[in-house]
Predict the 3D structure of the following.
Amino acid sequence: MNMNKIEELLAQLKKKEDEKQKNTVLWTLAIIGAVAAVAGIAFAVYRFFAPDYLEDFEEDFDDDFDDYFEDEEE
């Protein structure tokens, strides 16, 4: 009779430890997800507000390139 109670107590103790491990993993994943979400939002805001300098460069390059060929035809 005593052994049954001891085994029940040990089983309950092990169950509580397993739940603690699951909660720890869950909290860890939740924190990682929150950090990733904040980083994603920050990157999206940065991309939205950052000017696109490459677009201006390509337009200038096209203008220079066209002028070069117009000079050769003459």
